[in-house]
C-alpha cells in the first residue's frame, strides 16, 4: 500500500493499493474515535461490494447503516441529496459520527455534500470504486449536487478524513468505465507532467502507478490552492466544454468521455487562437484514441456555447478556460462571453 498525504486546510492520507476494501474498518479506526457511520452508495456498487465494506466496518466495532440510491448521473440532484440527509437523520447520526461514500464520483460528490451540510458538517471517508473517482473527484474536497441549470451548481469544499483507493476494484471495471479514468489521468499529464504524459503515450502503466501519479499531481495542486482561486483552475482543462457536452447529452455522456472530447476541443481552440503550439491537438487526439476515448464532438458550437454559459466557472460576465502552453504546462485564459463564443467556434 502506498500513501499520499494531502495537506489542505486539514491533512489526510490517501491510501492506494490492492485488497484495501477488506481493510476498510481497520484503516478508518486509525483516523476516528467515533463508533457509528452511514455508508452511502448506489445500487450498482451496493450489489458489488457494499457487503464487504460493511462487514469490515462491523468487524472493527463500528455500528453501520447503509443507504443506496439509483446509480447514474441523473440521480445527482436535490431530491437524492435530500434523501441522504433524511437517512442520516432517521438513523440518528450525530455530529461526532461520520459518513462513508462508497462509489464513483456521483456518490462521492453528493454523499460528501450531505456530510458537509448535515448538522453543519460531519466527517466523511471517500472510498472511490471507479478509476475516474480515484484519479480525480475523491481527492481535494469538492462536494456537490447538480441543479437543472448545470453540473455541480450547489456544493461545498469539505475535505474527507481519509481516502481509500482499492486498485483491485479499478482493475475489475468494464473497459469503457476504466477509460473514463484515463481521461483525467491524461489530463494530469497534459497540464502538469510531460514525462508522465509521455509514459502514458508510450505504454500503459499499471493502474497502481497511474492512481499514485494522479493523486500526487492532484494533491500538489490542492495543497497550493485548495479553494480554486488560481492554480486549481488548471484541473478544469477540458471541463468547460466537457461539462457543456454532458449537459447537451442530458447527462447521458459519461464524465470522462465528455472531458476527453473537451480536451480535444480545448487543444484545437488553443492552437487556432495561438495559445498552444502546433502538434498539441494531434498529441491529445492520439492519446485519446490509444485509450479508447472519443475525439469527435456530437454537438454544434451554438449548442455548446448555450450550455457553457451556465457553467459555474463563470465569474461575473467572464469565464476562465484552460489551454496548454505546451504538453505538461497549462494556463488559464479569461474570456468574456464573446470570447467564449469565439473559443467554442474555434474548438469545432
Ligand atoms: N476536479 C477538479 C478539481 O477537483 O478541482
Structural features, described:
With about 350 residues, the chain is an alpha/beta fold. About 45% of the residues lie in helices and about 20% in strands. It is built from 14 helices and 12 strands. The protein has helices at about 25-30, 45-60, 80-90, 105-115, 130-135, 165-170, 175-190, 195-200, 205-225, 240-250, 255-270, 280-290, 300-310, 335-345; strands spanning about 1-5, 10-15, 35-40, 65-70, 100-105, 125-130, 140-145, 150-155, 160-165, 315, 320-325, 330-335. It has a 7-stranded mixed beta sheet, with helices on both faces. The protein has a 3-stranded antiparallel beta sheet with strand order 10-11-12. Strands 7-8 form a two-stranded antiparallel sheet. Helix 5 runs parallel beside helix 9, helix 7 packs antiparallel against helix 8 (about 195-200) and helix 10 crosses helix 13 (about 300-310). The longest helix is centred in the middle third of the chain and has 18 residues, at about 175-190. It is globular, with a radius of gyration of 19 Å. The site of glycine has 6 residues, from helix 5.
